[in-house]
Amino acid sequence: RKEVEQDPGPFNVPEGATVAFNCTYSNSASQSFFWYRQDCRKEPKLLMSVYSSGNEDGRFTAQLNRASQYISLLIRDSKLSDSATYLCVVATTDSWGKFQFGAGTQVVVTP
Amino acid sequence: GAVVSQHPSWVICKSGTSVKIECRSLDFQATTMFWYRQFPKQSLMLMATSNEGSKATYEQGVEKDKFLINHASLTLSTLTVTSAHPEDSSFYICSAHISGEASGRSYNEQFFGPGTRLTVL
């Protein structure tokens, strides 16, 4: 079983719509959680960290469910520029920073 | 945010040659840098953890004699792919790790370089 699992998609989303997807992780000792965005043939860029209380950054909302061991990302009012692959990242050792990456969820926003 | 550069951004080489990739943190010091490899439509796979002034720690299945890592300073780590073969063709990405506390919250982040696309003929 992979340590971090994501639905690969693609999620085809009309512009202006809302899309949400989850990521599950297997290690209950995981301490840090992130969503990264990766555009085609580019490096990952941090979208947002995910805090226990959940957090929002503009149109993006992230939630953490420790009991069920998943994190979620919701994108409201989707823009064409939101088309990308969203990588779920989990770190098990806070001080060392070693990250486990999911394979990514592809989102395609259509006009 | 913090800036990490990688050089070269792409390289094409013949089978059997060695290729050196540099990863630099431009506006901060990083005691730890990571090297990843990503094949098309797959996730980033951690190859090794590079610690300044000490030997790199390699992930299972990654040959340390083939992928030589040197972290000579707090701002520079290099990955050398020795005797490259076509199966080594991939997207190699480095990241620099920062952790600490700010505004009462702990942070643990990695900043990625733009990646190096290696093609071995």
List the keywords.
heterodimer, A: 111 residues, mainly beta, 5-stranded antiparallel sheet, 11 strands, 54% strand, B: mainly beta, 4-stranded antiparallel sheet, 0% helix
Describe this structure in words.
The complex is a heterodimer of chains A (111) and B (121). Chain A has 111 residues and is mainly β. Helices cover 0% and strands 54% of the residues of chain A. Chain A contains no helices and 11 strands. In chain A, strand 6 and strand 7 form a beta hairpin. The model of chain A has no long low-confidence stretch (mean pLDDT 91). Chain B is mostly beta strands. Chain B has no helices and 11 strands. In chain B, strands 2, 4, 5, 6, 9, 10 and 11 form a 7-stranded mixed beta sheet that branches. The termini of chain B are far apart. The interface between A and B is medium-sized, with 24 and 26 residues.
Write the layout of secondary structure elements.
The complex is a heterodimer of chains A (111) and B (121).
Chain A (H helix, E strand, L loop, with lengths): L3 E3 L4 E4 L4 E7 L6 E7 L5 E7 L4 E3 L2 E6 L4 E6 L8 E8 L7 E3 L3 E6 L1
Parallel strand pairs in A: 2-11
Antiparallel strand pairs in A: 1-3, 3-8, 4-5, 4-9, 6-7, 7-8, 9-10, 9-11
Chain B lengths: L3 E4 L2 E4 L5 E7 L6 E7 L6 E7 L5 E2 L8 E7 L2 E6 L8 E13 L2 E8 L3 E5 L1
Parallel strand pairs in B: 2-11
Antiparallel strand pairs in B: 1-3, 3-8, 4-5, 4-9, 5-6, 7-8, 9-10, 9-11
Oligomer: heterodimer
Mean pLDDT of chain A: 91
Strand content of chain B: over 45%
Query: What kind of sheet is the major sheet of chain B?
Result: 7 strands, mixed
| Largest sheet descriptor of chain A | 6 strands, mixed
Strand content of chain A: over 45%
Number of strands of chain B: 11
Order of helices and strands of chain A: EEEEEEEEEEE
Brief characterization of the structure:
The complex is a heterodimer of chains A (111) and B (121). In chain A, 0% of the residues lie in helices and 54% in strands.
